[in-house]
Automatic annotation (TrEMBL), chain A:
<dbReference type="InterPro" id="IPR025669">
    <property type="entry name" value="AAA_dom"/>
</dbReference>
<dbReference type="InterPro" id="IPR027417">
    <property type="entry name" value="P-loop_NTPase"/>
</dbReference>
<protein>
    <submittedName>
        <fullName>Cobyrinic acid a,c-diamide synthase</fullName>
    </submittedName>
</protein>
<dbReference type="InterPro" id="IPR050678">
    <property type="entry name" value="DNA_Partitioning_ATPase"/>
</dbReference>
<dbReference type="Pfam" id="PF13614">
    <property type="entry name" value="AAA_31"/>
</dbReference>
<feature type="domain" description="AAA">
    <location>
        <begin position="1"/>
        <end position="165"/>
    </location>
</feature>
From TrEMBL, chain B:
<feature type="domain" description="CHAD">
    <location>
        <begin position="217"/>
        <end position="506"/>
    </location>
</feature>
<dbReference type="InterPro" id="IPR038186">
    <property type="entry name" value="CHAD_dom_sf"/>
</dbReference>
<dbReference type="Pfam" id="PF05235">
    <property type="entry name" value="CHAD"/>
</dbReference>
<dbReference type="InterPro" id="IPR007899">
    <property type="entry name" value="CHAD_dom"/>
</dbReference>
<protein>
    <recommendedName>
        <fullName>CHAD domain-containing protein</fullName>
    </recommendedName>
</protein>
Length: 248, 525
């Protein structure tokens, strides 16, 4: 089982769109894939037209396998399931802090899913909390979408600092640029400056109205508009991730 | 663990009626979207003994495709391009997994087209208020062709909830098919049985195994008659398959039924008046005798592949000639026996035989002194006698183990085996089953000896009648090759007899028979 987190301290950087499309692309290979919507806003659940069942809440999420199992839902796509978000996830941090080994808690809870899924994606909330730390420990790969702006780069640096300070494994982190607008010179300069830095992926995700329309389609862009430029970019990005994770 | 979860089969209130699938029945905002609708002509196949069903399988042909289904999950296990005739053998299929699966069901019984129907298949997706698919509903209706004129005689409805939508789908089901019960494990099998019954077929309706529950205290005359009625019904059920020459097992079961009948008459002493039982036994023996040459040929033809594997390629043409001749002869004998089955002579036999087995009147005590004894008493006594005799004879078999000795042993074994099978229902399974199993091991040894010896004699006769032309020479060489192998096998079986017999003649088996015939645990101190 390969666990991949889509993570960013900053919101609105295309994190959920990336998680939804990449989980879909992983499932297209015929390998069972689970997307865990850890964001209390539930955007990725919404994209799959799924809401959590009434009985689900953060407490159950932390109780581990069996409880998680009951709440996994099939999407309309083969080999792609989702663990829907629930509004109570906003309380996850408080509960994690009460757990014995909060950093390891998530990893342990997911171990049991290894038989059933080849890929597990985490769509994470945009903040740096105990939950994030638990996600870092549980993930094999941490994908960080960045808009090519100075502000984004700054938060990325903050993340690396955090890893250094807490002695976490920085090699898990891969950054990639999203919402790229070729005509903006600042975008081009920042990409130019960072793209060959270690830890950065080459493939760019263009800014696209199609991605925004995912809220109307309520399905992965790669499923409804596979020919769209952003969909093609996601496909190439997934190929790049797959090939670099083979090298690891 | 993705996509659809287990399928739920619904048991409708009215078996035949397909549920009306309309959105109006659903919760507000829910949608039905028809995804598949098709019609097909389907035929179900199974062997005469329903061996596919017994293994939890069903075999169906649609158009040019033969499919194998699992009767628990409803899933298709295998499919293969095969235009299915009214009956076929596993060996007729092209090489592949379906052929292998059917071979495992039965290598020698034919798969017979049991029923043909027009099938309507419809699949709907159920969407919730978010237009999220929560599962599919599948409805299948069976009608006698043509569909337009015949309302369905059976319908199946199944739900496939997407993962995590089980409860929602069950709510939907309750609205679409009010009152229908959700099936539990094995429910598809029961639905299948009901649907077949609605189509006029009794699933598992035939088995040559004796499954009578005898009353231990009933007079043995009454029990013996019910055994005879049972064996007679087996004879009658197999006649049609013999006439149509569907497979060799119809004749085999027919003959076993006759042998069992004769065994009842001969072994249960003093149960029937001799002047009635004697002629009846003779009459049924005469019928069996007419089938013996035909059965012999069947046995050789079944051995074709094995014989071929014994011989070098150079002798295969001779074998082909040999089998071609056997095949022609079989055809002639099959026709003449079928003619006999339709003859007034056979009808007269049946009338006489039926008069004998239908006469339930307790015979005169002087003529049949044991007739009124309790079944259990006679069963215990007879089994004991037969077992003792087998042991006595077996211990007397010389170290040379002559042909005659082994032939006699085989007959002793068969007699005991039949008795155990007749009276099986009187005894606890944990005693009778191991007793039968131990006996069967001995029978296997003797069976292979006697089969070899019968085949050798047959081949020898063939050789005698062969001429000296070139073709005949080739045939002679082939027969010689077969005889050498058969001889070796016969000698191996002969060598193994004493070992096989001593395994049967041990304390363990003795205790089982003591328990059976005295009802007590054997005293082994």
């Amino acid at each position: 089982m390969k666990t991949i987190a889509l993570y960013s301290i900053k919101g609105g950087v295309g994190k959920t769109a990336s998680a939804v499309n990449m989980a879909y692309l992983a499932s297209l290979q015929g390998e069972p894939t689970l997307l865990c919507d850890l964001d209390s806003q539930g955007a990725s659940s919404y994209y799959f037209r799924i809401s959590a069942s009434r009985k689900y809440n953060s407490e159950k999420f932390l109780q581990g396998k069996n409880r998680i199992y009951e709440h996994i839902k099939g999407t309309d796509f083969d080999n792609l399931d989702i663990l829907p978000s629930d509004f109570s996830y906003r309380n996850l941090d408080i509960e994690l802090s009460e757990a014995k080994k909060p950093q390891k808690k998530l990893r342990k809870n997911l171990e049991a899913l290894a038989e059933d899924y080849r890929h597990v994606f985490f769509d994470c909330p945009p903040n740096l909390t105990l939950l994030s730390e638990s996600v870092f420990a549980a993930s094999d790969l941490i994908l960080v979408p960045l808009i090519p702006t100075t502000l984004s780069i700054r938060t990325y640096a903050q993340l690396l600092d955090f890893f250094n300070e807490h002695d976490l494994d920085r090699t898990k982190i891969r950054a990639f640029f999203t919402m790229v607008e070729k005509r903006k010179s600042m975008h081009a300069e920042i990409i130019e400056e960072h793209q060959s830095t270690p830890g950065f992926l080459h493939q760019l995700i263009p800014n696209s109205a199609e991605v925004e329309k995912m809220g109307i389609y309520r399905a992965p862009l790669n499923a409804v508009r596979p020919g769209a430029s952003a969909a093609k970019a996601y496909r190439l990005l997934w190929d790049e991730i797959a090939s670099c994770s083979r090298e690891r | 663990m993705s996509g659809y979860q287990r399928t739920f089969f619904l048991k409708p209130v009215e078996a035949a009626a397909a549920p009306r699938m309309t959105e109006a029945l659903l919760q507000e905002g829910y949608r039905l979207r028809q995804s598949i609708s098709q019609r097909e002509t389907r035929s179900y196949y199974d062997t005469f003994e329903w061996q596919a069903f017994d293994k939890g399988l069903s075999v169906a042909s649609t158009g040019r495709v033969l499919s194998l289904y699992d009767l628990d999950s409803g899933c298709t296990l295998e499919r293969e391009r095969f235009i299915s005739p009214p009956s076929f053998f596993a060996a007729d299929l092209p090489l592949g997994p379906l052929r292998d699966r059917l071979f495992a069901v039965s290598p020698i019984r034919a798969f017979i087209r049991l029923i043909q129907m027009d099938v309507t298949l419809q699949t709907w997706k159920i969407l919730d208020r978010e237009e999220k698919t929560i599962g599919t509903v599948h409805v299948e209706s069976w009608s006698s062709a043509p569909l337009e004129q015949n309302p369905p005689f059976a319908s199946f409805m199944s739900l496939n909830p997407l993962r995590g939508y089980q409860e929602e789908m069950l709510e939907v089901a309750a609205l679409l098919a009010p009152g229908a019960a959700v099936g539990d494990e094995g429910s598809l099998r029961r639905l299948f049985i009901d649907a077949m019954a609605a189509g006029g077929l009794q699933v598992g309706g035939y088995s040559s195994k004796i499954d009578l529950a005898l009353d231990p205290e009933a007079p043995v005359h009454e029990s013996a008659l019910s055994l005879l009625r049972f064996t007679t019904s087996i004879m009658r059920l197999n006649e049609d398959g013999i006439r149509k020459s569907i497979d060799t097992e119809f004749l085999h079961d027919y003959r076993v039924a006759i042998r069992r009948a004769r065994s009842i008459l001969a072994q249960l002493k003093g149960v029937f008046p001799p002047e009635a039982a004697g002629p009846a036994s003779q009459a049924v023996k005469a019928v069996a005798a007419k089938t013996s040459p035909l059965r012999d040929l069947d046995v050789y033809l079944l051995e074709q592949d094995r014989f071929r594997s014994w011989l070098p390629l150079a002798l295969h043409p001779g074998l082909d000639t040999f089998f071609a001749a056997l095949g022609r002869r079989r055809k002639t004998l099959q026709r003449s026996f079928s003619t006999y089955l339709d003859s007034p002579e056979y009808e007269a036999f049946l009338n006489e035989w039926n008069a004998f087995i239908d006469d339930s009147l307790m015979p005169d005590a002087e003529l049949a002194p044991n007739a009124s004894l309790p079944t259990i008493t006679v069963a215990g006594r007879t089994i004991r006698k037969s077992w003792k005799k087998l042991i006595r004879h077996g211990r007397m078999v010389s170290s040379e183990t002559t042909d005659d000795e082994l032939h006699a042993m085989r007959i002793d074994c068969k007699k005991l085996r039949y008795l155990l099978e007749f009276f099986m229902s009187l005894y606890p399974a944990k005693t009778i089953m191991p007793a039968i199993r131990h006996l069967k091991e001995l029978q296997d040894n003797l069976g292979s000896f006697v089969d070899c010896s019968v085949q050798l004699r047959f081949l020898f006769d063939q050789l005698e009648s062969a001429g000296t032309r070139r073709n005949d020479m080739q045939l002679a060489a082939t027969l010689g090759g077969l005889m050498a192998v058969l001889h070796e096998r016969q000698e191996n079986a002969r060598k193994d007899f004493h070992k096989a017999f001593s395994r049967f003649d041990d304390d363990r088996t003795a205790e089982l028979f003591e328990q059976l015939t005295t009802g007590k645990t054997g005293d082994r101190q």
